[in-house]
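Putative oxidoreductase YcjS
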Amino acid sequence: MTEYSQPAQVAIVGAGNIADGCHMPAVQAQSGEAAVTAVVDVDLRRAEAFAARWGIPAAYDSLDHMLREQHPDLVIVCTPPIAHGEAITACLDAGASVWCEKPPTLSVAEYDAVAAHEREGGPYVSYVFQHRFGSAARALREHIRTGSLGTPLVGVCHTLWYRDDAYFEVPWRGKWETEGGGPTMGHGIHQMDLMLSLMGEWTEVRAAMGTLARDVETEDVSMAMVRFASGAMVSVVNSLLSPRETSYLRLDFPEATVELSHLYGYDNSHWTWTPAPHRVGATAVELGAPLDDEASSHAAQLRVLLRSLRAGERPEASGDDGRRALAFIAALYESARTGRPVTPDMITPASPIYHSMSGRPHTARDNAAKEKTGV
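Tokens:
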């Protein structure tokens, strides 16, 4: 990164809706700590239109060309999932840190191959898991760490969304080779990452999935039961078939039930803190709800990311911390495919699910990732 007194120079790769609606506002919310100096898209006209709309000095249709000319501190990757790995690797090799949209990569193997291009002190690649960064999630994470609510016992983690047939007319959607999976991989990953960031290490998953209503090769619904090292058990559902959409997380502790009900983001008003019967009358604040109210958002995560990169420290949601959700999804798919419970030690290079979320034999793309990791 540049000197702390200078704004971070940021480039955006992929001039689509997520860059327009989330990432540009997130950069602009950094109080001058970051500035977008370039945008890249395979469609140069779209890149130029994006640049004109946001007042960005340079537009490119080549990532390599942009990296040679601009030397950005941070590149935000907003491409379809199939392009994540190649873009991340090119940026890291050019000395630029990366913040990449979900899902991180198409497989655990590709994640590990990409991570091999990081260097101690940076550049690093981190991933968009913004639900971790609201003040209520941070407060609850600390209460779980200290045990102030007791050990978590029972949980629910549901992503119940709706996507119609037209949504899947985009060529790369609904295919293992280009999207990496269905709602488990591309939608529920946010809520599941929040669950995992709160609950810690999981020890077993038992799952099922189906393609019930959409003309896709991936699943359109999945369900799982998860055990954690703490002993807690959590029910997980990911769906794109649910007309009343909600993202719902519930954790039951000896001292309270804590619930989050939202759709694509939350603030403190979306959380409910309910005391156990022996603590009837206790207020949310007395149970541990925070007084500060920072919403979950791309802006909140970017603020933390920039601080880490300026310090030469590995950011949250990178490395093993960013890998956790992807490995969990691989385990969920493996259990659904085989009908057997899956434990973390089973997600290894010896397993097909490590190389492809479908569990199918390696493609040329998977083999390239395998060669890079030396496994």
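The chain has two domains: 8-130+300-315, 132-295.
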